[in-house]
Each structure stands twice: as structure tokens, then as C-alpha cells.
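Pipeline run #58 for the internal structure catalog. This entry was flagged by the ingest filter as a single-chain record with no existing model, so it goes straight to prediction. Upstream metadata was stripped on purpose; only the residue string is passed forward. Reviewer on rotation: M.T. Logging verbosity set to normal.
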Amino acid sequence: MLNVSNLKIAVIGLGYVGLPLAVEFGKKIPVVGFDIHHKRVDELKSGQDHTLEVSPQQLSESKQLSFSADLEDLKQCNFFIVTVPTPVDEANRPDLTPLKKASASLGQVIKKGDVVVYESTVYPGATEEVCIPVLEQVSGLKFNQDFFAGYSPERINPGDKVNTLTKIKKITSGSTPEVAEFVDQVYLSIITAGTHKASSIKVAEAAKVIENTQRDINIALVNELSVIFDRLNIDTLDVLEAAGSKWNFLPFRPGLVGGHCIGVDPYYLTHKAEEVGYNPQVILAGRRINDDMSRYVAHSTIKRMIQNGIDVTTATVGVLGVTFKENCPDIRNSKIADVINEFKQWNVNVVVCDPWADAEEVKHEYGIELGMVNAENQVDSLVVAVGHNEFRNMTATQLREYVRGDKPVLADVKSLFDRGQLTAEGFTVFRL
């Protein structure tokens, strides 16, 4: 059995989750950071991280960390952590392809006594029902006899420089009580916030998937309230601030639910629920509401433009922000792209501006060309979609310089600005 003194870790997948993990372990333990994308490996070897999760200084401080795209370099390791994406397909069904491929690759390199820990978000049972059989088949080794497994769900919050990896309590688990304790001790070596050792791998998997399901449902509630209040001509933020004066009112805000977790994880849970014969009601209702909010934002903006006499077929709308959250270059599952596509369905010309997003990545992922919106490149109406500091710090007067015409519409998706000041500048304001 392994012990911490002879540990050699491999982190499989060097994205928003894997890289910070590899960097922290690499400060204390020999680590190989592995990724199938040679461009990503070369970038990290040069001391740069385009996701901005890890600084060049942090990379340089991880003295025992190396990077590789060669499976041969993993054969020296004995503790493997899998942090590959787990998206959904176009029908919102779990896509475990990256997880299966990673498991097949590891099956070629694991040895007797090795431990494989999964961090990717999955439905309860996926580690033992999907991943382990692949490891056994490829390696020829026997689970819980020759090799062991664990599950420790990621809790990375992209772009958050306060609640970072070591400061977030970590759930751990293992395939035997002894392995569970060992996995827990490995993570405790870097997680200053401490750990919670779950009673089983399935419990750890379920805990992760309901964390974001709970947030999804709460956001869906306030999104639905926002739609109702708009029809009643009541400002949603005013209502939430009033209700928030009660000590136990939960401070959720309406918004577009994108990203790699909240908008995806509930589908993993509902998929498994349907497999065991239960048709989820509340979870899927929340998903339908949140998935419809992009269309609602576009339609609400267009409706106000038409009411203001703006010809939408010849108008240009400026969209400020395309990443799924503020002050972060992450564009995964961005619902802003859905807003833009909805505008295009109405033949509205759209100019998208985002100082954080990588233009090449946005073009590749969504077919959207990034442009410029400013006083020299005016538009007919604005959608401030993401709360980047560059937008948040703008005044109503500055925003007015971005638009032409007497009655422009401003959709303030994140409620960043003072409604009265926007109105004083001549905007017709819509916000969730």
C-alpha cells in the first residue's frame, strides 16, 4: 500500500480544475501534469496560463511539477487524479467520452498498488459503474485487489481569487476504508480548509452533483419571479432588496446560468434518476426556466426596441461580455452566445465586445467574431451581459456615448447600474 512519503502524483487534464491542483501538489510532492493537448503543455512549460487561474509566479513556485503529453511519463506515478471535462450533449445527456478516454489511457500505465482518484463531476455510481470497468479491462488488473480508486469532487470557482483551491473544504472518499483514509491524508497535505471524508464514493459523487443542482433551482425561482415582476411593472432588484431585510431570506439573484457546473450538473442527476425509474419534477422545471432565460433577455430587449420605434431589422445591438462569468476568460457553456443567436434569428446585427475572452476561442466555439463597441463605434441599443470590472465601472453617461438615437434600450442583465441614472440619460432600461 502507498504512503505519502513515496507518493508520485499525476494530474490528468490541465484545465481550470487540474492545473491549480497540480501546482499546489507540486510545491510538496513530485507531480506530472498531463494533458492530451500539446499546445496547452507547451504553454504551461513556458510559464503561462491563458485561463488566468494560475500566475507565472505560482507556476515557478511549484518546483516539483513537470508537464507532459506523453503517457510514458505517467508510468513513474502511483497516484492519479482525473480532472477532465464532463459536459452534456445536445440532448442534455451526460457525455462521459472524455472520462472513458482518460480511464482507457490510465489503464495502460497503472500498476499494482496504484490509486486512481476522479474529480470530474458525474452522477452517483459513475466512477464504479463506468470508469473502473474501463481501467480493469485495459490494465488487466483487479479493482480493490491490484489497484484502488477514490472520488474527490472539484469545487473550483473560476476567476475567484479569494475562495481558491486550498481555502475550500474538500470532500474525499475511497473504494475501501483504508484507501479512503489515505486519499483524505493526501488532500489534507495541501487543503488548509480541511476535508470531509464521505462514507462512500457514491455519497461523494451525489454530494457534488446536488451542490450545483440546489443553486440551479434557487436561481430558477428568482428568474421566474423576475419574469412575473416584469409583467407587473415591478423592479425585481427592489423586491429582492426589500425581502432581503428578513434574516433568513436567501440572497439569490436572477441571471443567465452557464458555465461548466450549474447549468450542466443537474442533468447528470436527472439522467441517473430516470435510469432508476424516477422522473424528476422540480430539477427539470428549474432547468427549463434557466435554459429559457437567454431567449427571454433577447425578446425583452427587442420588444422595447420596437416600442421605441427602432427598426430591429436595420439596427445594431452591442453586447458587452460573452464569458460565462465576470473577470474570467472562461466561455464554456456561455448563455450569452444563446442571447446573440436569438438576436440573429430576428435579423438584428450584433457586435460583441469582451476584453477578457480569447477571440480565437470564441470564434471556434460559437462562430462569433469579437468586435468593438465604443463612442467611435456606436450601436442602437446595448446589452450589458457580464459584470466585468471594465463594464461595471462605467457611468451611465459613458454608456450613453456608446449608443445613437433618441430612445436606445439598455438591457442590464446583471443589474450593475443605477436604473434612475440610466433613465436620466435617455435609456429605456430592462434588467432581470
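catalog note: The longest strand covers residues 316-320.
catalog note: The chain has a mean pLDDT of 94.
status: ready for reviewer M.T.
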